Amino acid sequence: MITHVKGKLVEKNPNFAVVECNGIGYYIHISLQTFSNIPDKENIKLFTHLSIRDDAHILYGFYDKTEREIFKLLISVSGVGPSTAINMLSSMDSTEIQHAIASEDVEKIRSIKGIGIKTAQRVIVDLKDKIIKTYDISQDLSTSNNTIKNEALSALEVLGFARKKVEKIIQVILQDSPEINLEELIKKALKNL
To answer: How many CB atoms lie within 10 A of CB 116?
Structure first.
């Protein structure tokens, strides 16, 4: 197993990076999260996961170990392959995925292209306990945050704001202030709209 690749960044693309290491160029599939974190400097280090199929050996690269661990958890779920997991990590960062799974936010997971309701439910059922235990996420906090988030979303939608825009703002506020109450959450969201 290749655990990481450290070398000269030859090419950087939203879907892949080419890293030259001792004269060998490694074509490494990456998420948008990793793409945005990779510096444009020459020497980089990517944590990797090698996926072996009958027809190909594919190397996936991650900027940090947490993203790689989330990737491994996602591909352990039946029906979620490496390309779907990379797509999930491109749509949401590692922390957002952890919180969406811990808070059983089916809609958030389902909003990712290529993820249906059954796959979203399977991801939650298979990974919720592992995510809560491994990343020490308070289950009560994530459940109450999900309730507050949904109530705030509904209130702001009634006021005429677009759900997708509001959802991103609320998510950021909840990550910064997990103990926030509903009234303060709505006030802060309105200031950012």
So the answer is: 11
CA 131 to chain centre: 13
Paired tokens of 190: 């309105």
Q: How would CATH label the architecture of 65-134?
A: Orthogonal Bundle (1.10)
**Which residues, given as ranges, of the chain have pLDDT below 70?**
136-146
Reported as a single tens digit per residue, the pLDDT across 146-175 is 678 888 888 888 888 888 888 888 888 887
Note the CATH architecture for domain 4-62. Answer: Beta Barrel (2.40)
Please state whether 118 falls in left (phi above 0), alpha (psi between -120 and 50) or beta: alpha
What is the residue-wise DSSP string for 72-97?
HHHHTSTT--HHHHHHHHHHS-HHHH
Half-sphere exposure of 72 (CA within 13 A, CB side): 15
pTM value?
Answer: 0.71
DSSP state of 112: S
One-letter amino acid of 124: I
What is the CATH topology of the domain spanning 139-192?
Helicase, Ruva Protein; domain 3 (1.10.8)
- List, by residue range, all CATH 2.40.50.140 domains of the chain: 4-62
Contacts of 30 (CB under 8 A, 6+ apart): 15, 16, 17, 38, 46, 60, 61, 62, 86
